[in-house]
Amino acid sequence: MEQLALKDPKVIEERKEFISTKGAQKQQVKCDEDSVAGSISQRACVFCGARVVLNPITDAIHLVHGPIGCASYTWDIRGSLTSGSNHYRNSFSTDMKEKDVIFGGEKKLAIVIDELVEKYKPKLIFVYSTCIVGVIGDDLEAVCKKQAQKYNIEIIPVQSSGFIGNKSAGYRAACDALLRLIAPAPQEQLTNNGETSQPKEVKKKSKTINYLGDFNLAAEAWIIKNYLKEIGVEINVTFTGDSDYVSLKKAPEASLNIIQCAGSMTYLAKKMEEIYDIPFIHISFLGIEDTKESIRKIARFFNDPEIEQKAEQLIARELKTIESQLDWYKQKLQGTKAAIYVGGGFKAISLLKQFKELGVEVVMVGTQTGRKEEYQTISELATEGTVILDDANPTELEQFMTEKGADLLVGGVKERPLAYKLGLAFIDHNHDRKHPLSGFVGAVNFAKEVYSTVCSPVWKYV
Amino acid sequence: MLDATTKEMKPRLSGGVINPAKTCQPIGAMYAALGIHKCLPHSHGSQGCCSYHRMHLTRHFRDPVMASTSSFTEGASVFGGGANLKTAIKNVFTIYNPDIMAVHTTCLSETIGDDIPTIIKQSEVPDGKLVIHASTPSYVGSHITGFSNMVKGAVTYLAEATMEEKKEQVNIIPGFVNPGDMREIKRMAKVMGVKNIVLPDTSGVLDSPMTGEFDMFPKGGTKIAEIVDTGNSKMSIALGSFASSDAAYALERKCKVKPAVLKTPIGIKATDEFLMTLSSNFGKEVAKELEEERGQLVDIMTDTHFHFHGKKVAVFGDPDIVIGLTEYLLSLGMIPVHVLTGTPGSKFETEIKEMLARAGIEGSNVKAAGDLYTFHQWIKNQPADLMIGNTYGKYIARAEDIPFVRVGFPILDRSVHSYMPIVGYKGAMRLLEMISNALLDRKDRDSADEDFELVM
Ligand code: SF4
Ligand code: SF4
């Protein structure tokens, strides 16, 4: 067993516990801690986490309360497609100035809301707090409440001050905002003639599910929607890809929640189980094995022979369509070594599986915000000698990819040029992806993408 | 979003922004610091900001952008970030080993009031290594302000007048332009035979060649010794008053280097002025090579002038770039009907209005500290034939079906632009090609079969 050399001074002392080699060390990799000051961390902040989860809600006004930067950098960068409103593609900011920082930004926030309501007549506004708002202590809750009453619309504060944690805390803040949104209106608002009515009973629709943790990047949610429709299961609402105010309100009616992105949505699912009595299951539509298994899992849940039969038919047909294409790519990719560095643990896991399906060896795998259980699974899936690491910096990435002879890196925006400079192929598996990677079609797209970057003639000139 | 913008204009009293035409200070500071050789920019704040700034620069330049962060957590925001910065300084020099670290603040560290110079003084900086800083609160100014502050910070910390007599050399402060532009500015000065120091200089850093290796600190960037030596130069030329003049004045105060603030040399007139300033101050004839390029430019301007003359154009972007562009567009006979920048500063409006008045153009909209919502409303009320601006203009261009030329920062949906200059005569030629192609492609697209022509 080759022992991995952690050459000093390249790997900083405090970082050693966050890196391990499968087979070489007993100890599990450390994760879920704050980054070391002075490192070139690839991590993002609470606001970022909240924004990515909520932004795909198409007809909402996403108002960023803070200085201009936070709004500028998150302006329409997600690639979540819409079948309805394009409203979420705008960028709204209170553009806080020195004066607001000194005297507080509540007044300005209230006026900005006034003007936005007048202009757009929205049903729903999210107000995101940024670092500075957390420090100066603006009472977002109060301003939102007052303005919401004034206009009789929903204005939901998102507590996403950047420094109170990392991206995961932002997911939670977003889920809290979503829970507020789907909560049934207080009963007095439900009566039209002043009489007090009973709290409205949520009517469950059978064979109807909510799809949690798909942001409809490159139309991925639509693919899954069609699969499920074919087997007789209706998607009620997607959290949050291509969703809107009206559809989200119907969320409590579903009879099952399925979760694609565990990192962002498990918390919401648990809460919905508690409050609305909706059970949930984890699924994944990334890669063939996961897709097959997930469709079956959903079919089994409903315990309906017809659904199960249709599911098998769908799987058989789809597999047949992609079989020969995949075989071709597999052949071309023989002997390829891949490195993975992505945001969440769930994604890393599904990538490990997908590479296995393609016969590609994974030599390094890491995440920005993976959790302990996820690293456990990663470690089980990884082959001997694979480097596993948490919250890596570019120097580490470079070192391990070179040592391990990776041909390909899967990562996000910031990793792309790094890979290219090293002469490595690259795949974007982040919010920037342009081809759907979900479902059977997605598996082919993935193979094709790996092929087109790994086998590009450009590497001959390096 | 296309129909969400209304034609009816009401004064917006809130000060809120819809679709910004600017971003925050730290990213400008980060970009400036990348133009110093073997420098690691350091963001003093929480890691989110740093990650966003790196991501945005990466998208524009498509090259690795390195910067470290103090990784603030809740503790730091209560007790101050001093400890974080000290640890960061120690770690950065042990792990990444840059020659110099350029610290900039974020709105968070500014708000809690960290005293950066004092913290730096108390930190362990290895022998021969340097730490400089700039204060860049994001709730003031824009990314251009941040850029300006970091360049000023670099000369304030480092420049020294070590000689009795000033050297026959010029400091050129190029402003927030692409590495391709900085290369072109250096080339012009070299062809003129004037010894020069360009600060900052991101060429060779953010347009570095592919070598099959990843280099944390690519070969490019202004060397520290050169920054020190800017104090000995005979004069400083600041290109663009918004991004560059502060550093030039700081050098004047500190080292008695004569400042000259010129426009960013976009188009024929501003390039002439730049070369004439070099020529008259250093007693050099304008080089034959450059004269020839100027001749070529005039030649193609004559070849194509009838395509542009009288065409209405809407321009937005960073102030120095927009000022330079507006002057060039006027020289082409075009009519800038809407001119906007997101960066605050009344001298933008004054300068543009003076140029328009001199050209006899009335009724144009001009605004500093504006946003793209306003810009879109203007176009709805008074249509334009062409739009010039950064990537974000594409929404408006699509909604209003206007040919669109991408110039400025950021450009996230096209590549190669950062390698190609828009400054100098060469840059003017390129702009001319882009503008005429956009207009003529549009004409081809729109013309009826019987009007479709081979020669235009
Ligand atoms: S928190 Fe401040 S410094 Fe950070 S991105 Fe937002 S505006 Fe910029
Ligand atoms: S890691 Fe998962 S939850 Fe997080 S943004 Fe990515 S896909 Fe979403």
UniProtKB/TrEMBL annotation, chain A:
SUPFAM superfamilies: Helical backbone' metal receptor (SSF53807). Residues 45-454 form the Nitrogenase/oxidoreductase component domain. GO terms for biological process: protein-containing complex assembly. Keywords: Nitrogen fixation. Pathway: Cofactor biosynthesis; Fe-Mo cofactor biosynthesis. It holds the Pfam family Oxidored_nitro. GO terms for molecular function: nitrogenase activity. Belongs to the NifD/NifK/NifE/NifN family. This protein may play a role in the biosynthesis of the prosthetic group of nitrogenase (FeMo cofactor). NCBIfam families: nifE. This is Nitrogenase iron-molybdenum cofactor biosynthesis protein NifE. It comes from Desulfuribacillus stibiiarsenatis.
TrEMBL record, chain B:
Residues 24-439 form the Nitrogenase/oxidoreductase component domain. Binds 1 [8Fe-7S] cluster per heterodimer. Coiled coil: none annotated. Its cofactor is [8Fe-7S] cluster. The keyword Manganese does not apply. Gene3D superfamilies: Nitrogenase molybdenum iron protein domain, Nitrogenase Molybdenum-iron Protein, subunit B, domain 4. One of its GO terms (cellular component) is molybdenum-iron nitrogenase complex. PROSITE patterns: NITROGENASE_1_1, NITROGENASE_1_2. It catalyses: N2 + 8 reduced [2Fe-2S]-[ferredoxin] + 16 ATP + 16 H2O = H2 + 8 oxidized [2Fe-2S]-[ferredoxin] + 2 NH4(+) + 16 ADP + 16 phosphate + 6 H(+). Its EC number is 1.18.6.1. InterPro entries: ChlB/BchB/BchZ, Nase/OxRdtase_comp1, Nase_comp1_CS, Nase_Mo-Fe_CF_bsu. SUPFAM superfamilies: Helical backbone' metal receptor. It holds the Pfam family Oxidored_nitro. One of its GO terms (molecular function) is iron-sulfur cluster binding. Belongs to the NifD/NifK/NifE/NifN family. This molybdenum-iron protein is part of the nitrogenase complex that catalyzes the key enzymatic reactions in nitrogen fixation. This is Nitrogenase molybdenum-iron protein beta chain. It comes from Desulfuribacillus stibiiarsenatis.
